[in-house]
Amino acid sequence: MPIVTAEILAASVLEKEPSVVLTVDDRRYLFNAGEGTQRFCMEHHVRLGKIKSVFLSGLSSSNTGGLPGILMSVSDMGTSDIEICGPPGTGAFIHATRYFLRRKSLGIQVFEFCPENNQPYDDGVIKIYGVVISAQMNVRAKQDTIGLSGPSSTRLCQRETHARHKRRRLNEKTSLQVPVFPNKNEIGCAGRLKSFSLSSFGNSKEGSVGTGEVVCYICESRNTRGRFLPEKASQLGVPKGPLFGRLSRGENIQLDDGTVVYSEVCKLPDSPGVSFAVISCPSLLYLTQLITNPHFMSYQRPQGTLGRQKNKKLTCLFHLTRRNVFELKEYKLWMASFGEDVKHVVVNSSVFSGNEIPLMATFRQNRMLHEIHPRIFPLISPNESTELKLPSRPEACENLCESIIPARSLLKIKLAPVLNVD
To answer: Which of 207, 220, 277, 360 is deepest in the core (most CB within 10 A)?
Structure first.
């Protein structure tokens, strides 16, 4: 079974949003690259050179602010090709960086997930499904709109809608066609990059257009092949040689006399890989589509049952969720629906903040300025509130506290072969 490890970057850093680095054997995958990711990795000696794929939860600055710098850094470290996956509009975002992102030895391939008909990202090492959710105004979101009501709230919603339409019009001007994978749209780079191509994991599109969608990711590592039983195959009349290899790979074979030998008779069952999810819900506008999304239903425990029955199992969920969403009863009930043995890693610093300041350069500078004038330059102190609010009534949340892991910077979680938190 492959070794699968997840490392949390900057879970409680004042200067940047958290990221997750997934390592499967010798391949690395980065989830989100906010501003300051490159600086954090340099200070804490996190190697970025082996990152071959970047997965974006959204296109806001908290998810993409540090991506151009990371792309230039990995190119300087010798990386020749990198893949970037994200919501609709990812291609237009990368195309907009062409004025300052110039690395003639770097090839970029962009994959966009769509709200419907998505196929998974599969590189033979891990399979990653993109679950696209869109903003949807509901009663709770309207009430939470910065405490406004009546005409003020209506004007704010109208401004948000106008801003989304404006972004869409600006994106449509790029005319970046996005064909369905494996087809690619090769974009001319004029010598700035080695290559730049666009593909869609869903439907083909006339342009790389985004309207504020975010993506949650469900990751599944490959199954471990069961041990082959050569004695059993010999008893069934299978001669040694290539037929043994076909049976060990799970293929059924037919002997010269017409006898069909099934692979499951000659090998032990395959061990399933580990499954986990990266959840992003930046505001209450996305909550309804998240908790009702059918992609998660196959991993949830049916209501009124104690076991999982035949549902798939998630080992861990990484929550990149704001505090106002995380503390809601509906969100906690949705978390509890995955079962008691599922671990929930709270990554966002606004939910669970630790007592540390990982960027030591900032801390040292702040200390020196504080010595000059304590009143003008007060010391930076981390948020000491580490209490999570859980609903008291619902029975489904009784054991949820034991499953929650507050993330800290550089926290490593081994997901396979055995779950272990360092």
So the answer is: 277
* Residue 228 near residue 261, CB atoms below 8 Å: no
The C-alpha atoms of residue 230 and residue 99 are separated, in whole angstroms, by 60
CA–CA gap between residue 126 and residue 31 (Å, rounded): 14
Residue 349: predicted pLDDT: 65
Q: What is the DSSP string of 226-282?
A: PPB-HHHHHHTTPPSSHHHHHHHTT--EE-TTS-EE-GGGSBPPPBP--EEEEEEE-
Token representation of residue 347: 């990554």
| Number of neighbouring beta carbons within 10 Å of residue 132 | 22
* 8 A C-beta contact, residue 77 and residue 51: no
Residues 372, 367: Cα–Cα separation, whole Å = 9
Specify whether the CB–CB gap between 376 and 308 falls below 8 A.
no
Selection from 21, 24, 20, 79 nearest residue 52 by Cα: 79
Beta bridge partners of 180: 200
Tell me the per-residue pLDDT of 330-341, one tens digit each, with 9 for 90 and over. 999 999 999 888
Distance CA 354, CA 384 (A): 7
As separate numbers, helices (DSSP H) first and strands (DSSP E) second, the chain gives 13, 19
Show the tokens assigned to 48.
């970025």
d(CA 339, CA 360): 39
For 68, phi and psi rounded to 5 degrees?
-60, -40
Asked if the bond preceding 18 is cis, omega within 30° of 0, the reply is no
Check residues 356 and 189 and name the one with the higher pLDDT: 189
What are the beta bridge partners of residue 421? 413
Structure token digits, residue 108: 């970029």
Q: Torsions phi, psi of 134, nearest 5?
A: -115, 160
Q: Report which of residues 23 and 118 the model is more confident about.
A: 23
This model's pTM is above 0.70: yes
